[in-house]
Design a protein that fits this description.
2 copies of one chain form a homodimer. Chain A is 34% helix and 19% strand. By secondary structure, chain A is of the alpha+beta class. In chain A, strand 18 and strand 19 form a beta hairpin.
């Protein structure tokens, strides 16, 4: 199929190969090493312990139909293939820079078993093949078969790029061919598309590696999604003997299928689905030069980040639909803010910034990386949050595994691929989006440029960026000036520059010689943040942020349920590095007042307010919460 | 069976016959007339429309087993008999003072059909007889058969007292005999008791009318409940082929069956179950002079009202277990605070005050009557709340009917029987618990005393209480001094008295002559209430109360989501009667500040707080909320 649009081609910035970016000490080295050494192996161990791998025993006869139980007592889901896919993807990102035959053997084992189980027509889904073969493709609305294949496909692409082995990729190309043969608008094909988006962006990844099946594969799916109705789900339900009106989510806005995507201007429904869809829209806008898709994606990004976004970068406030409700509805203690959704926002923002170098995208990528996504994994890399609340009374604890373990592998694949978020390039252009100690080997078109950042970021805002082209080369260096930065000082080889900040980036265009040093200083005062008055949950409250890091107060540091504290406007707050706090972190301390329980005594209500006593508080980075003893936590604190 | 305890007999105050108390103008006349003229007839109409009455067609063959759907699309429940019972009870309370042959015919129709359906061994439950006859008595943990029979029994007692007809009572006595034959500790009997308490207090009602089956019937059930374990539920589950560990509520504290009731000191589990249990414990303490039961009931009452009680009188904060969580956990926007639970608290407090004349019980009865229970029914008497939130963002709307319509008939039976909450008597003693315009014919032992209250209470705290014994008589008049009253002035025939306040009551003992007038003045300033600092949701917030009435702010009166307002400490607040507000009510008005959306502009977060502008607010009685257009509401308002 050919692309029939006639708009000018969008030239995107191409992300760095994540394996070409090595974190060299500091924050992200610690995290990426934790993911590689702890998270990836323990996730495989969990999948083994919990019987995921057993489902891949295709040589055994089909197992009973009833929903089985994992050994830990958690129920199994029909879309666990997606976890294989995401785990292989995360593992693959670690493999290229750190070859690991044992890990590769584990991946190969899964691949071999999937290959063995794949049906002769290319269909691949371990749940349905092993347990309910007659139900395949009977419920695109609820059962996530394309979603599962999409994640396997992403895993296959990543593993191919890491290992050079084509077996998994070939398996998934057969599966994609099967989807394309089965679904479409052509006569004889089924008109449906999966209600859980994912396959769309996976198809683009495949296309970018193989040139096949052309963006039209994903576009065809999106086009049906963009069409006038989602009546296929109704027809399908009736075929199953169900009344479409009994659909638990009532209307298809849950899956963003309530109106053509190009017309949508409010982010609705299931948050992860929305993020995957919009990521695919951004990719498709590039590959098909489709400006109307890009416009919709832009509009939706602004709606999300301007009206439906936690200060931590969390999104999707409600557990009821795992997603969005009304604008400005951002409850703290009941925040759903799924880890996967924040992770997927990074996917989307990263893609948008490839098209349009604008820090309104990358600011939010940085925000979720340091806060609302990273909070989803424990500091030791083996416990997780699904929901990322912004306030707790002590009953939110991380878990080792989950009945729907989608988040662990999602945060793993994001952090394992983090290098590609730091730098993007075009011929003659290098964009630096994130800061942190690293050494990177980049290509600007065919010009190799090596880059090194020396910095204690995010604990400190001073960065020494050494630019090392193989030989002197003329190119544009784009540096992101974070939205949180009020003043930045930039020098090249000691000479202070004052370049204009355009859409949150400064551009230094010059002949770059090996060893040129750009020094960037972002002062990092502690900032108090206040919320739009329409966010009623945050009225009268303050949040603390320093640089890209959002803070919270935990009971363990403050000796009492932190909701009994109130901060004092206008008082000086101190930031200092505490080396023995969970691997080292900057904490914020300052004066506060605590309610006197002694003075109140017994009883629930009375006609005079409680008395307060002076005290001091300590706040820690939000992403580090719930790593010590249980207790209350709050991001938004009362302030008087 | 004989009562084997040897403690001195507890002499209780006996509630007035509700039919002997006529509300004469004012607040409660309006509500009791609404219940009689609108609520009772429309509830019958709903039960008819929704197919409840159809289930009583016992002459038809058993209907399919699958859970059927009400015509409105709501699912049916297996415990709908309880709604017949509560509806008949409410209707009966209206019948005695207002004979209504048409209404009586409707009750008789239900009674005739229940009598026809009753099984030969006395078993009665329309769901199981019509739909799942083999499942009777197989699941006391979840299926509420005794609960349903208990409510039918309460209805039968009330209908017998109102109409003199014994048919329904006889049906239910046969059902009770069947329960006593089937369950017990004797050999050959089943050792179980219903996990949803109710039958216990219904049995006491039966006993008080018929002298049978002696309090031991209820006591026997309670004794098994008070026993060392709830293993019967486990055995029963195994018999059904279920693993007891799969119990959705995890442990039997959900049904207060986790430890002997006499040892319980924290109110836990399902709120309505708890209130029904504790009400029965109070009754049983009287009938069996069981001081240890009374001590437990006292302790639990204090735990509830001192640590787990909304300012409105709502209780049971969580929808997950329809009940209690941890102490001081009182979220506002997600408050469950089921109408039935507040209604049942009135039952409990009323019973405790019959034993111990202490306003710490009756204060809470008054609180729920004017607030957390009354909020469960619309001003027009035909729409309902199940959950009574204390804060809304506009999406809480009253419903006409519900898949679990337990609350409508519960609030109806409470208000329809309200007269009995106003007065209780003993020989030589008359206790006045509540204030409001009414005329009552009471008996102090065998001494008839007529009483009249002239007052605009609760809008005004001046009461003229005329005492009219048939002839001059010596007795004690106990008057409740509400806990909210800071100063009360009392005079008899113009002479000011200063009697001591003992446990919230003053006692005037004298020869009372016909026409003696007691004047009571309770000043009703607007009060600001503050919550214990351990209630984190209310920190920094204020609630407004005047007399017994708790207030809230609604968007419709204030022109904006009220969470954007903040009240100002120390400013003067004005109370005034607004005659055209939902039948007339006192509103509270005063200065406030509102956040400037214009000044804020777009965007979610920034480093300076929003600007505020002066404005004024209006608050209305909480029980009147959600009777006009949809919008935000808050009881607890920020205050600076």
């Amino acid at each position: 199929m050919t692309d029939q649009s006639i708009t000018p081609r969008i030239e995107r910035f191409v992300p760095a190969d994540n394996a070409a970016v090595s974190f060299t000490g500091g924050f992200w080295e610690s995290w990426t090493e934790t993911i590689r050494k702890v998270t990836v192996p323990t996730q495989h161990q969990r999948m083994d312990e919990e019987g995921f791998l057993e489902v891949l025993n295709f040589h055994l006869p089909p197992a009973p139909l009833a929903r089985p139980i994992q050994p830990s007592g958690l129920s199994m889901q029909h879309f666990f293939d997606s976890d294989f896919g995401k785990w292989i993807e995360a593992a693959s990102y670690t493999l290229k820079a750190h070859p690991n035959p044992e890990l590769e053997a584990k991946i190969d084992d899964i691949v071999d078993r999937l290959a063995e189980g794949q049906m002769t027509d290319g269909y691949l889904n371990s749940w349905f093949i092993r347990r309910e073969p007659k139900k395949r493709w009977t419920n695109l609305r609820d059962l996530h078969e394309m979603y599962s294949m999409g994640h396997l496909l992403e895993g296959a692409v990543a593993y191919f790029l890491a290992s050079g082995k084509r077996k998994f990729l070939n398996v998934m190309i057969r599966a994609v061919d099967h989807i394309i043969d089965t679904f479409g608008t052509e006569p004889g094909k089924l008109r449906g598309y999966d209600a859980h988006e994912e396959i769309e962006l996976a198809l683009i990844k495949l296309y970018r590696v193989t040139g096949e099946p052309a963006p039209s594969g994903a576009r065809a799916i999106l086009r049906r999604r963009a069409g006038p109705d989602a009546s296929y789900y109704d027809e399908e339900a009736r075929k199953r003997g169900q009344d479409p009106k009994d659909y638990v989510y009532k209307d298809y806005s849950y899956s963003q299928a309530h109106m053509p995507v190009r017309e949508q201007d409010k982010v609705v429904g299931h948050a992860v689905r929305a993020m995957y869809l919009f990521s695919a829209m951004a990719d498709l806008a590039v590959e098909t030069s489709d400006l109307s898709l890009l416009a919709a994606s832009n509009r939706l990004f602004d709606n999300l980040t301007g009206r439906q976004f936690y200060v931590t970068g969390g999104l999707g406030p409600s557990g009821t639909n795992e997603g969005f409700t009304r604008e400005y509805d951002l409850p703290n203690a009941t925040a759903y803010a799924e880890t996967c959704a924040a992770v997927a926002l990074a996917f989307w923002g990263h893609r948008m910034a490839q098209i349009d170098l604008d820090s309104r995208f990358t600011d939010q990528v940085e925000l979720v990386l340091y806060n609302g996504a990273l909070s989803g994994i424990s500091r030791d890399g083996q416990q997780y949050f699904y929901e990322n609340v912004l306030e707790s009374h002590g009953d939110n604890r991380r878990w080792k595994w989950h009945y729907c373990p989608c988040c662990p592998t999602n945060i793993a694949r994001l952090i394992a691929s983090l290098g590609s978020y730091f730098y993007t390039t075009k011929p003659g252009e290098l964009a630096v989006h994130l800061y942190g100690a690293n050494q990177a080997e980049l290509l600007l078109g065919d010009v190799p440029v090596s880059v090194e950042q020396q910095t204690a970021y995010p604990w400190d805002g001073d960065i020494a960026l050494t630019v090392n082209p193989a030989k002197t080369a003329h190119f544009k260096l784009h540096l992101r000036i974070p939205g949180w930065s009020r003043s930045a000082e930039i020098s090249v080889n000691g000479e202070i520059l004052t370049p204009a900040v355009v859409k949150g980036y400064v551009t230094i265009e010059r002949d770059w010689a090996p060893g040129d040093v750009v020094r960037i200083a972002f002062p990092m005062p502690v900032e108090r943040l206040y919320a739009n008055p329409q966010v009623s949950e945050d009225a009268g409250r303050v949040a603390l942020k320093r640089g890209p890091v959002v803070y919270c107060l935990e009971e363990v540091d403050n000796g009492l349920p932190v909701q009994q504290l109130r901060l004092l406007a206008g008082t000086e707050l101190e930031a200092r590095f505490v080396s023995d706090l969970l691997g080292g972190a900057v904490v914020i301390e300052g004066p506060a007042e605590q309610a006197s329980l002694l003075q109140w005594g017994e009883g629930l209500y009375r006609t005079s307010p409680p008395a307060f006593e002076p005290t001091r508080f300590r706040a820690i980075p939000y992403h580090l919460w719930a790593n010590r003893e249980a207790g209350a936590m709050a991001v938004w604190m009362r302030e008087i």
